[in-house]
Amino acid sequence: xxxxxxxxxxxxxxxxxxxxxxxxxxxxxxxxxxxxxxxxxxxxxxxxxxxxxxxxxxxxxxxxxxxxxxxxxxxxxxxxxxxxxxxxxxxxxxxxxxxxxxxxxxxxxxxxxxxxxxxxxxxxxxxxxxx
Length: 131
Description:
Elements: H1 9-29, H2 32-41, H3 43-61, H4 66-100, H5 104-115
Helix pairs in contact: 2-3
């Protein structure tokens, strides 16, 4: 990409003005009347362009088009990530379950910490956190 440096504002304005002239010429060439006139002069060209335009729209925006495929691939990645996270969680839970099997002290610890259970005759003191 070419970087243009202007030594003064006048040069910048002249360059901008030249670019606007080119843009106006191009804009005049692509009016509806000119397009219709060119289509009348060369109908085969108009038919080919029309068919290509229709194929483009179908290829990108139909239910089996590129846009739909990209959207589905994005959803697939999200779902695969959720599956991976769920599998990791499942492995952690399996490991915790195996650790609790047959270990009465571990079961008691979980019951006390997670579920707030106490033995008969025990007193529970709860400390309020400072605000």
